[in-house]
Amino acid sequence: MATGGNAIRGTRVGSGPMGEQDHGYHADRIAVSYWDGLGNETVRYFAAGLPDEEIPDTIDHPHTGLPAGRDKQNPPELAKAEPYKTHLAYVKERRTDEEAEQLLEDALTQLRERRGQA
Q1: What does it do (predicted)?
Q2: Comparing C-alpha atoms, which of 46, 102, 95, 93 is closest to residue 57?
Q3: Three-state SS letters, the chain
Q4: CA nearest 42: which of 62, 19, 57?
């Protein structure tokens, strides 16, 4: 005979005398709206007795992932994306051959000095 757990036969797990009120589904709560930089609104619910200082001013919008604030007129700014750099842009940023040779020479000099001290 296979038995498992401590549930009584014929009962559902989690069923009991508690109703929805005991689970907190009917607790008094307030709705707080948040807006992201694109104008999307999301509503979060908080306990009615919660002090205003404990309600966050900004959250991450659940659908867009952008920061969202309580002020509809001045939502948080969108993150500024850096433009994609092409390989050519990196080549233009490289040092000249003279600078590269000087850097190499400095590095070799420092290495030789450390080996001499060791």
Answers
A1: Binds to RNA polymerase (RNAP), stimulating transcription from principal, but not alternative sigma factor promoters.
A2: 46
A3: CCCCCCCCCCCCCCCCCCCHHHHCCCCCEEEEEEEECCCCEEEEEEECCCCHHHCCCEEECCCCCCEEECCCCCCCCCCCCCCCCCHHHHHHHCCCHHHHHHHHHHHHHHHHHHHHHC
A4: 62
Put simply, whether the predicted model's pTM sits higher than 0.70 gets the answer: no
At 60-104, the pLDDT tens digits run 888 888 889 999 888 888 877 777 778 777 777 777 888 888 889
Q: Nearest 5°: CA angle at 35, between 30 and 37?
A: 170
Residue in the block written with tokens 């994306």: 81
Residue with tokens 């948040």: 34
In the sheet with 67-69, reading across from the earlier edge strand, the strands are 41-47, 29-36, 67-69, 58-60
Q: How far is CA 111 from the centre of its chain?
A: 43
Tokens of 106: 């400095």
